[in-house]
Amino acid sequence: VQLQESGGGSVQSGGSLRLSCVVSGYTYSGYCMGWFRQAPGKEREGVAAIDSDGSTKYLDSVNGRFAISHDKAKNTLYLQMIALKPEDTATYYCAADPVLPIDYGFHSDEYKYWGQGTQVTVSS
Fold first, then answer.
1. Model confidence over 91-104: pLDDT tens digits?
2. Closest listed residue to residue 79, CA positions, set 36, 122, 32
3. What does the buried/exposed string (b/e) look like for 2-12 if buried means 16 or more CB atoms within 10 Å of the residue's CB?
4. Which residue in 11, 29, 36, 114 has its CB near the most CB atoms, within 10 A?
5. What secondary structure, in 3-state letters, does the chain show?
6. Are 101 and 30 in contact (CB under 8 A)?
């Protein structure tokens, strides 16, 4: 299984980006997929997660600004980000697991598969 993120970049405060994560070799029917981020000197934190039933969860600080979605036909996970703030600056990672319940969607240690990350930089 391979996960490949793209879509990161540098934007000004208030701008938008859409991150993509193409998943290949994933043969499980169920999943929990998530987006995590890690800023320099900080711990990795869960930003958004979605499961195969369509249930989602969001970090409080991004709720209403970020939207996670999964296109099953394209095997691609997305994170639409609007109203970006400088504190959103981080490396963003996608992750997938075939059995993790959505309630544990922000437990990074529980995910089996990870991407390499894409950098998001928001300037004020």
1. 999 999 999 999 99
2. 36
3. ebebebbeebe
4. 36
5. CEEEEECCEEEECCCCEEEEEEEECCCCCCCEEEEEEECCCCCCEEEEEEECCCCEEECHHHECCEEEEEECCCCEEEEEECCCCHHHCEEEEEEEECCCCHHHCCCHHHCCEECCCEEEEEEC
6. no
Single-letter amino acid code for the residue at 115: G
Tokens of 95: 């992750």
Six-digit token pair at 22? Answer: 């193409």
Q: How far apart are CA 52 and CA 100, in angstroms?
A: 11
pLDDT tens sequence across 34-77:
999 999 999 999 999 999 999 999 999 999 999 999 999 999 99
Residues whose CB is less than 8 angstroms from the CB of residue 26 and which lie 6 or more positions away in sequence, other chains included = 1, 75, 96, 98, 113
Q: Which of 16, 54, 34, 42 is nearest to 106 (CA)?
A: 34
The Cα–Cα gap between 72 and 69 comes to 10
Among candidates 108, 73, 74, which has minimal Cα distance to 94?
A: 108
